Amino acid sequence: MSDEVPPDPGSPRARFGAEMRRLREAAQLSQAAVGRRLGCTQTQISRLESAARTPSKSDAERLDALFGTNGSTYFTDLREHIVARYGGPVWFMSWAQEVEPFALVLRWWDPLLIPGLLQTEAYARTIFRHAPRITPEEVEERVKGRMFRKKILEGDNPPLFLALIDESVLRRNVGGPEVMREQLGYLLEVAQRPSISIQLVDRLCLSGVMGAFMIAELPDGQPDAIYADSSAEGQISADPSVVTPIWNRYEAIRGWAYPEHMSLKMIEEARREWI
Q: Residue limits of the HTH cro/C1-type domain (predicted)?
């Protein structure tokens, strides 16, 4: 992403890069030489070693073949851990690993669905199951990853989580009445936590129809980062020229939000309608 947040040195992706660099230097190979063996550029190798790029499956397999002994699958196994830990597409990993877990405040807008970190397992599984050409194994991997990500909202020092949700989401049938009752009940439950705020947004608000997004406020003076969703590949950035318009859009949407106490009452009323 532009103006990337430095990766967590203990993350699987950082360990992947550090071990790759260690073995390359021990073999007295340049980044360009390893790049030729992997079929990529010196810049791509540099980004792998600095944890600025998530390795592909072929990257991991070729590194195992280059540096491994006796059929070692170290890089392949670590790459699987990187992806399976969070579920979802590879390009999302930099947000899930290096931004979201360290945020002081997370702001989330969604005009179509319950925000991912507030979804129940059944609700999330229904959404993933409808992805084109997805396998049952991939569905379960993504559900597992989403449930893992939810852990950041638990514990002793969770981020402040501020969710804005279009009111029409409460009546969008995802999985049937039982799934919807459970999901809306879960919203009412987690809204009692002091670190979580849920506000519904009037369906007449047009400022957010372009799509869902998240804003992360980070510690130690780091710039805010955003994730903006799309049907192809989301955008992750800390570039002020990208972040500022998202902030402006968030504030415009928030101007159409119902007070929190009214929002919770609306959620309870909608939950009773799912019979």
A: 20-74
pLDDT tens for residues 27-47? 999 999 999 998 888 988 998
- Beta strands 160-166 and 196-201, pairing class: parallel
User: Strand locations in the chain, DSSP E?
Assistant: 105-110, 160-166, 196-201, 213-217, 225-228, 235-237
Of how many residues is the chain composed?
Answer: 275
Distance of CA 118 to the CA centre of its chain: 12
CATH placement of domain 92-273? 3.30.870
Q: Are 209 and 112 in contact (CB under 8 A)?
A: no
Would you list the DSSP string of 34-53?
HHHHHTS-HHHHHHHHTT-S
Triad 212, 215, 220: Cα angle to 5°: 165
Q: Give me 144's structure tokens.
A: 């597992």
Would you say the pTM of this structure is higher than 0.85? no
Question: Is the distance from CB of 202 to CB of 167 less than 8 angstroms?
Answer: yes
